[in-house]
Amino acid sequence: MKRLASVILAAGDGTRLKSNRPKALHEVCGYPMLHHVLKVATEANAERHVVVVGYEGDQIRSAFTDRTNLEFADQLERLGTGHAMMMTRDHFQDYEGDILVLCGDTPLFKVETLQKLVEWHRHQDAAATILTAELKEPRGYGRILRYDDNRVQGIVEEKDANRYERAIREINTGTYCFDSKHLFESLGKINQDNSQNEYYLTDCIRILVDEGKRVEAVITEDSEEVIGVNTRVQLAQAERILRSRILERHMLEGITILDPDACYVDDEAIIGKDTVLYPGTIITGKTR
Known about the structure:
alpha/beta; Spore Coat Polysaccharide Biosynthesis Protein SpsA, Chain A; two-stranded antiparallel ribbon
């Protein structure tokens, strides 16, 4: 079977969170967002992980010293997602396989979604496959461009989009599966010719399409999964969604929760069958 590794982009600072901590270290249901992303990537069978860090990168390194199969790449200048991926090149010198690209501030992806992405990518023998979503309010996201026959044409960032492109509701989630060879070849061809003067990873998609390589897209069924955390409001939203999933899992395993809206259970807590949780119950960490 073809090998799978993950790259997690976690160089973001906490500016909009009004925080001195790196964004990826802010917690959702008791664990840093990066923990949740690493967990789901591992469950999707990624054998190793490269985390791109920037702002206060040493804090992130220190928080994950106990993890195996984890490497770090430094992005010392904030020159875009394409530039972040360039910083991982040395980690993949002798690697042949697929690379799952994820953002460190998207803690809500389910393993089934990532497995579907990887499986479709391999089934189609694609150079790249984009995970997309259809949103009623797509503001802030890059839009997926398609040809008349529905093939992927490219991705346009919102700041570079015209009014017709901004009307498109299918968005780029920032999650991809790339063939490693095609990824790094296309990274060598991108430039900073855009409104942000950055290297866009999305330009790799355009280059691969222009070269006649196969580029696919998989639409996620649950648009809640794609939520990225940039503000404290979005952090609370992610907390609510993940907590609801955790409580539902426990209820399906034989736990009675009298008022799910008034109980708090961390992701890795273990609760015995036939336990009854009353309103106001708080179970944190790896409590058993």
